[in-house]
Specification:
With 191 residues, the protein is mainly α. It is built from 9 helices and no strands.
Length: 191
């Protein structure tokens, strides 16, 4: 569902719902991801029955911990916008939120890489092979792509902000490169 964020945010922004609409899409997609995970895991129950090679006990609390971790990461990457809107004047909060939301698109790069990385690494480890090589390659790719995205935010910030939020948010262009750098680092950490 991570790919749904940009797909759904753009029409919401185009319809004029602004930052609140974009945050609403983020919340809805996060809840959808939790729902899909819950649905996919519904048949696992208390134990995981698999082939003779692997007779591991499935721990429901591990799934809860992973889901809570994913939701915590999503919350941490959005709490700044909530606080900015609560503590700053409307204009300054909006400028901050615009820069923050555009820069957070970089996190999608790492989410896509992580989505591919986890099953491949788990498969290699289950076969008794090392997952270190694929992890290192994934971190390198995430770092390179995140750096490219952050550089774009430094080079053409005004066009992105005006396109996504309108001319009244031009003030956020000063923040966009810094947010992009922070999100690039967060994206690599996410992998």
């Amino acid at each position: 569902p991570g790919f749904l964020r940009p797909v759904l945010v753009l029409p919401v922004l185009a319809a004029g719902f602004g930052v609140s609409g974009a945050l609403g899409v983020n919340l809805a997609v996060s809840l959808l991801a939790v729902g899909i995970a819950g649905f996919a895991l519904r048949d696992l129950g208390g134990t995981w029955r698999s082939s003779a090679r692997s007779s591991h006990r499935f721990q429901a609390r591990e799934v809860v911990v992973l889901a809570m971790g994913a939701l915590a990461f999503a919350s941490l990457t959005n709490v700044d916008v909530v606080l900015a809107n609560a503590l700053l004047a409307d204009r300054e909060g909006g400028v901050y939120a615009a820069a923050s939301i555009v820069a957070k698109l970089i996190l999608i790069v790492s989410a896509v890489i992580s989505t591919v990385l986890l099953p491949k690494t788990a498969s290699r480890v289950a076969e008794g092979r090392s997952g270190t090589g694929i992890l290192n390659a994934s971190v390198f790719v995430a770092a390179a792509l995140s750096a490219i995205c952050a550089t774009i935010l430094f080079v053409v910030p005004e066009k992105l902000v005006v396109w996504g939020f309108g001319g009244e948010f031009r003030g956020s262009t000063e923040l966009l490169g810094l947010f992009g750098t922070a999100m690039a680092v967060a994206g690599v950490v996410n992998v």
